[in-house]
Amino acid sequence: MRDLTAKVEVPSLETASLPRTRFALGRQLALWSVVAAVLLVLPLLFEQSFALSMLSQMGIAVIFALSYNMLLGQTGMLSFGHAVYFGLGSFVCAHVLNAIGAGALGLPVTLLPLVGGLAGLGFGIVFGYVTTKRSGTPFAMISLGIAEMVAASALMFPAFFGGEGGIVTDRVVGDPVLGVSFGPQIEVYYLIAGWCLLCMIAMYALTQTPLGRMANAVRDNPERVRFIGYDPTRVRYRMFCLASFFAGIAGGLATINYEIVTAETLGLMASGNVLFMAFVGGIGHFFGPVIGAVLVSYLQSALSTYTQAWLLYFGLFFVIMILFAPGGIASLFAVHAAPLRHGLLSRLIPGYLLCGAMLAVMLLGFIALVEMLYHFEQGAALGREFNLFGFHVDVTLLKPWLVAGAVFAVGLAAFLFTLPVVKRAWAAVHVELQARDA
Amino acid sequence: MEFFAISMLNGLSYGLLLFLLSSGLTLIFSMMGVLNFAHASFYMLGAYFAYQLTGYLGFWPALVIAPLAVGVLGALTERWGLRTVHKYGHVAELLFTFGLFYLIEEVVHLIWGRAPVDYRVPAVLDFSAFTIFSTSYPAYRVFMMAVSVGMLLSLYLLLTRTRIGLIIQASLSHPHMVEALGHNVPRVFMLVFGGGCALAGLAGVIGGNAFVTEPGMAAAVGTIVFVVVVFGGMGSLAGAFIASLFFGAVQTFSVALDYSLLNLLDVFGVSVERTSGWYDVLSLSIAQMAPVLPYLLMVLMLVVRPTGLMGTRET
Fold first, then answer.
1. Which residues lie across from B128 on neighbouring strands?
2. Terminal-residue alpha carbon distance, chain B
């Protein structure tokens, strides 16, 4: 039980590049400048208000997912209750913001996320003391217990949590400072982008510190860590507190962005969501959760407008990722790095195209089946006839079911049939790579 | 007195139901070292299968077929899901069952909709068994207790008196030795996982109509079952039994007790002003605290005694 994550293959970016990063301050600077430039330019590329609020949401999610990965990816602690610190930070910020609005407190809104961070840190210090005493599965269960406890008490203390309706607030307080009132969404976006950049740099820098290194050691082999004179519990506790701090910052930004905080933000659903983001992105790489946060936020907003079944697709996507790509999307990129360097990527592409096309056919059939099932079961609410991929479908007839089923079955068979092509291509590339290494 | 007797009986039947769930969970845990997050989802599937089958075949066939179907599903999950992710370690296994938990809930939404389904107590058992003081006690509750106790007794006998039970027990502690003796340990794992899921399914069949059969039932019961298993000591059947009965009683009593700290202070002659900042906290009654109580108790237990009630392992 002790080696909870020992078997997870974590192709670590840090250990591989340790000697280089020391001397590559310039490279680091260049990397973060690019990130800053991207954050700066993004809202100019997408001008619609929908895109802007989406980008703001992504920025918050990126901080949150990265802070989660400090637990799971870096220290090997699987938490089911990380949203507690996000949510509590969010609630505290809402109350502070209301106090600022009432003139009881003088604090610039720009610094409000810091208040959220400190609130997250405070609760992290209290709850983390209990949680981090254990590791492995008990840790996961205690984090779940605390999450349930906080979520259940949200309805017990309506003065703080605002009951069912939550706490409403207004981010436009006082006079504009240098023309910034945080009224328009674009100003909020830049606030979030700024904090996002700061937090990303801080969290990356943390991975390079002795504490960050020891956290990795605690993840991989706590017994050995104890042997060389460190206390794994203390390392876990510190990482937990810091992760809660960054989660609180994300929570504070969420308060400013949405101007409402409800008990849902600290529930099990929210905790599961951040776990999903970090895992899908890839917990073994620093930037994995960033990919996950951006992708998942986008999919959630986009899919939920199209289909009722989006949670089902999500769950399936998650389970399939765990089964076949436990390193997340980042690891999918990582395995292609070597072929790319040696110019062998072109050998893999034909197989991918073929297999991908078959996969697309299978997915088409599958999605059609699921959507039809939804419309069949909830016909009263959704209507039994609807438009699917441009076709008019009546789910009470047999024909569409047969067609969709056939498309799915043919796609599945073709996919399984063409999979060996990809496998053969990979085997050939491996042989070639080994030959070049030798 | 009447309240106490009725609550005690209700607590007992609920506790036994919890033990049907937690026994499977704790067996699976001690064997594979992984807590099955989706365990309560199999409980939910049991209830829905029984609801569907009752419509076609009646309650009694459903009582047998639904748990078996859930057990087969569980075995398939182990064979094609868990065994695949096993090589990636316990985190991946736990995450897999977590994903499964969401997936099953969504599939239930997809097939049976979001509203509760009309799964009822069979007419044969819908009468009053006996009367305590002035309250009549439903026969179905007695039936629930009988099924749970019967099932658990046979489980006990299976584990201690039969050959397969001995192999299971040996695989718990010394899987490599058992394998060396020529037994197919992965298959034993699959059987135990399927068996545990079947027990959960049975709990769903008899619990689904006593309570409510709805898509949220897995989440509602699931976390309580975790609390029971952690509280009783992970991997300990006896601990799970005591904790199940204890939490069954806690859950039943706490929702009905309308006392708060204010009442306690009253006894000592202390009164708190309504305007005091502490009033909100002190006036919380036990009934209001009921949803939080199990988690609070679990956290307290872990602080005081990290192995749980009867557990032997630290982690």
1. B138
2. 42
The end-to-end CA distance of chain A, in Å, is: 39
Tell me how far apart the alpha carbons of residues A408 and A399 are, in angstroms, rounded to a whole number.
Answer: 14
Residue B101 inside a domain? The answer is yes
Do the beta carbons of residue B204 and residue B70 sit within 8 Å?
yes
**Pick from B182, B185, B144, B163: nearest CA to B20:** B144
The CATH number that domain A13-317 falls under is: 1.10.3470
pTM of the model: 0.84
Look up the domain containing B95 and give its range: 15-219
Interface test with A, best of B76, B173, B295, B312 (most A CBs within 10 A): B295
Is B249 contained in some domain? no
The domain locations on chain A are: 13-317, 337-437
List of E strands, chain B:
128-132, 135-138
Number of Cβ atoms within 10 Å of the Cβ of A199: 23
Which pLDDT band holds residue B67 (cuts at 50, 70, 90)?
very high
Asked if the C-beta of A304 comes within 8 angstroms of chain B's C-beta atoms, the answer is no
A9-38: per-residue pLDDT in tens? 444 444 444 444 455 777 888 888 888 888
Return the bridge partners of B260, or none: B285
Q: What's B129's DSSP letter?
A: E
Run of H or E including A320: helix A310-324
**B247 within a domain of the structure (yes/no):** no
Token reading at B258:
């309308």
* Of residues A217 and A350, more confidently modeled: A217
CA A214 – CA A208 distance, rounded (Å): 10
Task: Give residue for tokens 């489980």.
Answer: B155
Domain count, chain B: 1
Cα–Cα dist A230/A56, whole Å: 40
d(CA A256, CA A250): 10
Any domain includes B204: yes
Backbone angles phi, psi at B101, to 5 degrees: -55, -50
Q: Which residue from A145, A316, A373 is facing B298, i.e. has the nearest CB? A: A145
- Pick from A3, A314, A326: which is nearest to B92 by CB? A326
